[in-house]
Design brief:
With 181 residues, the protein is of the alpha+beta class. It has a domain of 78 residues: SH3 type barrels (Roll). The chain is built from 3 helices and 7 strands; from the N terminus they run αααβββββββ. A 4-stranded antiparallel beta sheet has the order 4-5-6-7, with no helix packed on it. It has a 3-stranded antiparallel beta sheet with strand order 1-2-3, with no helix packed on it. β4 and β5 form a beta hairpin. The protein starts with a helix and ends with a strand.
Length: 181
């Protein structure tokens, strides 16, 4: 008897859930979709701008065949002119000497931070871009233009640089590194 009672209860539950499901589906499930389609269709349509008209390509024919080809590098024959004009003043850097540590830095990146004196000897203290402090004296080299230290004062280091003159020779130029405050 209890078996019949459970089956009857189960049947009623199934029947009640089916009725509830049918009642829920009785409305229009696509009502909100239909409303969206209706409002979208009622809006005014904007026109798409036409594509711009392109100008036809006009080719260019190079007719200066007797002139130099513009796509090759120019060659200049200046060996005679340079040899006639190049200064032979005897000034040139010593490429055989070993380079010193301060020659790898541009002269304007070096900062004089002080001087040292002991008896007759005087040194200048130079700070490079790496933060290293170097002790130099007259005769040492600094900068990338073969700059030789000539004189050290309390306020600056005087150098003589050897730079190219642009026509195959070399010239000397005076430079200095002032003390930074």
């Amino acid at each position: 008897m209890s078996r019949y009672y459970l089956n009857s209860t189960a049947r009623w539950l199934v029947l009640a859930s089916l009725c509830g499901g049918l009642m829920a589906c009785s409305g229009n499930p696509n009502a909100d979709l239909e409303e969206y389609v209706r409002t979208t269709k009622s809006q005014t349509k904007s026109s798409i701008e036409p594509l711009p008209e392109f100008q036809p390509y006009e080719s260019f024919t190079y007719q200066a065949t007797d002139l130099r080809d513009p796509f090759t590098a120019p060659t200049f024959s200046t060996t005679r002119a340079v040899s006639n004009v190049a200064s032979n003043n005897g000034i040139k850097p010593d490429f055989d000497r070993p380079t010193e540590p301060l020659e790898e830095f541009p002269l304007d990146s070096l900062r004089m931070v002080g001087t040292l004196e002991q008896r007759e000897d005087q040194w200048a203290l130079i700070n490079d871009t790496d933060g290293t402090i170097h002790r130099v004296q007259p005769g040492n080299y600094a900068g990338q233009n073969h700059g030789k230290i000539i004189r050290i004062t309390d306020f600056e280091i005087e150098l003589t640089e050897i730079i190219p003159d642009g026509i195959g020779g070399w010239v000397e130029r005076q430079s200095s590194i002032a003390i930074s405050e």
